[in-house]
Known about the structure:
By secondary structure, the chain is an alpha/beta fold. The protein has one domain (2-212): Spore Coat Polysaccharide Biosynthesis Protein SpsA, Chain A, CATH 3.90.550. It has helices at residues 33-41, 77-91, 112-123, 148-156, 162-167, 190-212, and strands spanning 2-10, 27-28, 31-32, 45-51, 66-67, 97-102, 127-132, 135-144, 171-176. Strands 5-4-1-6-8-7-9 form a 7-stranded mixed β-sheet, sandwiched between helices. Strands 2-3 form a two-stranded antiparallel ribbon. Helix 2 (77-91) runs antiparallel to helix 4 (148-156).
Amino acid sequence: xxxxxxxxxxxxxxxxxxxxxxxxxxxxxxxxxxxxxxxxxxxxxxxxxxxxxxxxxxxxxxxxxxxxxxxxxxxxxxxxxxxxxxxxxxxxxxxxxxxxxxxxxxxxxxxxxxxxxxxxxxxxxxxxxxxxxxxxxxxxxxxxxxxxxxxxxxxxxxxxxxxxxxxxxxxxxxxxxxxxxxxxxxxxxxxxxxxxxxxxxxxxxxxxxxxxx
Length: 213
């Protein structure tokens, strides 16, 4: 567990491909996808918050702080990251880092935070994001709270692309295998949620084998 790192589940999207509503609350294995993401993220960080817009009471059962975007018109995941950085600065000054994961990514690795920190240290850069099979996942990233002013300025200037902003500061990549399951699989649409149902037993089986060994 990293005592200097706050976890943030990004749940502020509009879920257009899923037909609207909250993707993280869609069921996977008879539990909301958000349950899966939280179960894997919580042991790695000092605390967890949600980034979501609208009525926060729909997440009341989780008992977690909910930080809404500070910018209007749903400008994308960078705004969610900024909301988490601002929340950390105001509420958890002991957390000088934020790790973000999308709420529709239920299989995130249980060593995500440590390996992202190791990657940025090895590269000598302030940022890191996840990668598997050559594909990067910019929203699954590690962010220093110290860059929140720069990020706010970029968003106000119209920046919306995560990898373009991170490239300006230096962003390392941490790599994971995609077997038995790509840990960064995300369920954006109904067919992908169905695929996640198929993959879930494979992930659980792999976990049991690792424990048995």
